[in-house]
Amino acid sequence: MRAVIQRVSSGSVTVGQERVAHIGCGLLVFLGIAAGDKPADADYLAEKIIHLRIFEDAAGKMNRSLKDLGAEMLVVSQFTLLGDCRKGRRPSFGAAAPPQAARALYEHFLAQVRAKGLPVSSGRFQAHMQVALVNDGPVTLTIESPHAAR
């Protein structure tokens, strides 16, 4: 499982003409689920992201987490994070989990974040989405679960 995390001052997801999610200050998480990923991978990433100290404290150092601030998270499923571009000119998505398995782990990840008491919004699984964000910093990180496909 792979996540690209962006610290944002705002973020939103639109499907067609409908805005399906919006957050203020927090984290926008693009989540890629690989074939073979398990609930333990989602648990690991949820815990890691919630406690990742990437928000500034009073001294201007990245020393506060999403949990510390009670800030929001917006999660967008993105199988293209598993794209392999090493060969040819068209990415291969063979490492991505099939939709049914990916949806279950995506929902599991969301449930883990909610269980920690944090506000979480999400995009629409398997939809063509327009994602808007204001990256704060900019701060963008990539995190993989310990068993992520390389």
In short:
Helix content is 23%, strand content 37%. It is α/β, with parallel strands linked by helices.
Helix and strand topology:
Layout: E1 2-15, E2 18-23, E3 26-32, H1 39-51, E4 55-56, E5 62-64, H2 66-69, E6 72-77, H3 99-115, E7 120-122, E8 130-144
Helix pairs in contact: 1-3
Total domains? 1
CATH class: Alpha Beta
CATH superfamily: D-tyrosyl-tRNA(Tyr) deacylase
Unreliable stretches (pLDDT < 50, length at least 5) are: none
Oligomer class: single chain
Question: Helical element count?
Answer: 3
Distance between the termini: 10 Å
Overview of this protein structure:
The protein has 150 residues and is α/β, with parallel strands linked by helices. The chain has one domain (2-142): 3-Layer(bba) Sandwich (D-tyrosyl-trna(Tyr) Deacylase, Chain: A), CATH 3.50.80.10. Helices cover 23% and strands 37% of the residues. Helix 1 crosses helix 3 (99-115). The N and C termini lie close together (10 Å).
Keywords:
single chain; 150 residues; alpha/beta; D-tyrosyl-trna(Tyr) Deacylase, Chain: A; two-stranded antiparallel sheet; 8 strands; 37% strand; globular
